[in-house]
Design a protein that fits this description.
It is a single chain. The protein is of the alpha+beta class. About 30% of the residues lie in helices and about 25% in strands. The protein has helices at about 25-40, 80-85, 125-135, 140-145; strands at about 1-5, 10, 20, 45-50, 55-60, 65, 70, 90-95, 105-110. The protein has a four-stranded antiparallel beta sheet with strand order 5-4-8-9. A three-stranded antiparallel beta sheet has the order 1-2-3, with no helix packed on it. It has a two-stranded antiparallel ribbon with strand order 6-7.
């Protein structure tokens, strides 16, 4: 864990540097990290918030995979969220189920965009979303051709 310039603590989790919000003790940190891991391991969709160049927020649901250290997200290369992240690689994630006793969490993340377009779909997103892709009429090859960022 490292300190930010403003004194808040960050958990270094690979590409997604997730800030533990309102955490003051090691026990609270561990509980928060376990809760985030549960959400990231179980949820099919998270909400990604980025900032447009004019300062306006941009909020979208995203498909993702979590490997325990970072999120992998595929996007259309020209999508607003991608343009926003090129200018400012910081995002906020909203996770969880508000209808389940408002069991939700939020996390700040630092984002790294890949320089080269994706040419194949890794196993994890294919396993997680193959039925949803099929329902949209997309083969894995069509998906990665469309969502290559």
């Amino acid at each position: 864990m490292r300190e930010r310039d403003d004194g808040r603590r960050w958990s270094e989790r690979g590409i997604a540097m997730i800030r533990c919000m309102s955490v003051t003790t090691a026990d609270q940190y561990a509980a928060h990290a376990a809760r985030l891991n549960r959400f990231l391991s179980e949820e099919p969709v998270v909400w990604l918030s980025t900032v447009r160049p004019d300062g306006a927020p941009h909020l979208v649901p995203i498909w993702f995979t979590w490997d325990g250290t970072s999120l992998l997200v595929f996007s259309k290369p020209g999508a607003q969220k991608v343009r926003n992240l090129r200018a400012n690689p910081v995002a906020m994630l909203a996770l969880g189920e508000p209808e389940d006793d408002f069991d939700v969490a939020m996390a700040e993340a630092r984002v790294e965009l890949m320089e080269e377009p994706a040419t194949e779909l890794p196993w994890a997103p294919l396993a997680k979303y193959s039925a949803r892709m099929a329902a949209m009429g997309l083969s894995p090859d069509q998906f990665v051709a469309t969502y290559s960022q």
